[in-house]
Amino acid sequence: MALSVSSLARDHEIFIKEQVEQIERALHPSVTEDEELVRRALFAVRNKSVIIGRYIPTNGILYTQVQDVRPTEVIIHLNSQIIVCNCPHDGWCRHKVSVIMSLYQYLDSVQDWAAKWRAKKGVNLHLLASERTPENWQAMVDEVMSHLLPTGRQIEHYMISTIYENAYTKLRKHQPFEREWQPIYHLFMEIAVLSKLWEHIFQTNVGLKQEYFEFFIDRRFEGIQIYVNDLAGKSRLFATDPFFDALQVMVRELLVERNTYFNRRLNIYLLFWDSIFIERRRAEEEQEILSNLQNVSEDVPLPDILNIFHILLKNYEELQSNLDVISPEHLDVYFGLAKFSLSKRDDVASELILKAILPHLNVYINHYLMPSKRQLSVKRIHSLYENIDLTEREEIQLYSAFGVHGVQPYSSFLLKKQRYEEWVALHLLYPSSISYLETCGLKEVLENEPAATLPLYHYYALEEVNQKSRMNYKQAVRIWKMMKSAAKKSGKVNFWADYIHTVREQFKRLRALQEELEKGNLLA
After folding, report:
1. pLDDT digits (tens, 9 = 90+) for 474-512
2. Per-residue confidence (pLDDT) for residue 372, from 0 to 100
3. Is the pLDDT of residue 209 over 80?
4. Which InterPro entries does this chain map to (predicted)?
5. Does residue 301 contact residue 255 with C-beta atoms inside 8 Å?
6. What is the distance between the alpha carbons of residues 127 and 198, in angstroms, rounded to a whole number?
7. Which residues, 6+ apart, have CB-to-CB distance to 253 below 8 Å?
8. DSSP labels, 311-333
9. How far apart are CA 17 and CA 9, in angstroms?
């Protein structure tokens, strides 16, 4: 029975039209290569160079061939919606497009589609790239993104990376030939595309999955870091100055005009002012611009942002004045500023900031951090405070704010001060396990003040006994052996004899425990 292509096309109309939409999004009429690809694909359709071969209904596979320079096979897996071509071209090639259009012509006019697609052409990217100006580079981004992000179009979370890569791939084709120009071109395109995508997403996508976009931004930040590091510290061509001026405007707009994920926007902003924008003149200019801004996004604490420039310009009096009015909800900003000042090796600014944060740490950790993030956040915060000198009172304030999440660093502090009884009290307040105690310095306490460890061993042994199983009794005996050794070391042999006799009497009904006590030779 002969294959009816028109019936097949109608049966799979949704799939075919979805593929046509993907072609529209992926291929841009302003890109010379894309325009040529579509032109050759449509020529193959008109010239009847697409041969629809056989179709296997049981597994939904359609075999086709395109009579190109050499015959090329295109296989469509209709059930799994996968298109495979045996040419070396990745993504949409002229063979895949020609096959889809050959099927589409049974559903709608290919000529009308081509006319509408070409009508979207704004300006030729090649012509824009030929005259090297920041305005032309921005126009290239606007042209590509207007095609990928039509007004009002909502984006599924899994499409964000694809759209970004699609745009960046098209723009990368027009990079300058000169090696010294390429890092700034790539950095410009990274920021421009990210800013456009960010703006569109939060105007249209109310229910976007938060964790996915966070992952996407973090990946892009890594890419931006690579280009920033490539540019940092290198001599610059005089001709690149306008492009650095444009980047200054772009990263400022990303910070103060975009919405949500403020900390990630701030990280990008700080990255540029840490490594790229190093001239005092530029810092003074930026400070003045920010001071006079009227309209900024709701999540931007502008007075806090100005501290960046107090650090850069070493205006410590202004910095201290701003630090007098810190709000716990904005502490993330100040941790960013502390890291920024440390990267600038500004000990004065980093100490001012970190000491100003101290009174607000408790509220920040317990009220503004999700419980699942507190442990890691405390670890990062502690790494910042290790860079400055604190008084004993300030150190106690720091570790008190950490609470249970800062037991390990607080343990190290108490050991450093040889405050062994307080070390024991800390671990009785926040009980854990014997193995965790060993990571926190139990061996050192045992060496220097063994008597102080006896309450700990008592507590953990009884915890095991209360589980009432043979395995737990064995573990209790192991802990009591440690306690026995500590008692002997501290000269409390009589105490130990009285203690273990009392334990035996208290739990005389627990036959299994009594047996384990005998085996452990604890009564001798």
Report:
1. 999 999 999 999 999 999 989 999 999 999 899 989 999
2. 87
3. no
4. Znf_SWIM
5. no
6. 27
7. 195
8. HHTT-HHHHHHHHTT--GGGHHH
9. 10
Distance CA(477)–CA(521), nearest Å, equals: 9
Query: How far is Cα 228 from Cα 222, in angstroms, rounded to an integer?
Result: 10
pLDDT tens figures, 116-146: 888 777 677 788 888 899 999 999 998 888 8
Dihedral of alpha carbons 376, 377, 379, 384, sign: positive
User: How many other CB atoms are there within 10 angstroms of residue 410's CB atom?
Assistant: 25
Kindly state the tokens that stand for 340.
């920024």
Spatial separation of the C-alpha atoms in residues 386 and 307, rounded to whole Å: 22
E-assigned strand segments in 181-318: none
Q: How far apart are CA 163 and CA 140, in angstroms?
A: 15
DSSP codes of every residue in 443-483: HHHHHH-GGGGHHHHHHHHHHHHTT-SHHHHHHHHHHHHHH
Q: What is the Cα–Cα distance from 197 to 171, expressed in whole angstroms?
A: 15
Calculate the alpha carbon distances from 338 to 199, 334, 356, 453 in Å: 29, 6, 11, 38
Residue 53: helix, strand or coil by DSSP? strand
Own/partner long-range contacts of 235-240 (Cβ < 8 Å, ≥24 apart): 237/180, 237/181, 239/132, 240/181, 240/184
Question: 440: burial class by Cβ within 10 Å (0-12, 13-18, 19+)?
Answer: buried
Give the DSSP H/E element, type plus range, for residue 83: strand 82-85
H or E, element range at 373: helix 371-385
Burial of residue 68 (number of CB atoms within 10 Å: 0-12, 13-18, 19+): middle
Positive or negative CA dihedral for 254, 257, 259, 260?
Answer: positive
Amino acid at 92: W
Contact residues for 170 (Cβ-Cβ < 8 A; gap 6+): 28, 31, 34, 125, 144
Length of the chain: 524
Cα–Cα distance between 101 and 20 in angstroms, integer? 8
Sorting pLDDT into bands at 50, 70 and 90, what band is 524? Answer: low
Q: Is the dihedral of CA 256, 257, 259, 261 positive or negative?
A: negative
Instruction: Give the pLDDT confidence of 11-25 residue by residue, as tens digits.
Output: 899 999 999 988 887
Q: Is residue 229 within 8 Å of residue 182, measured between CB atoms?
A: no
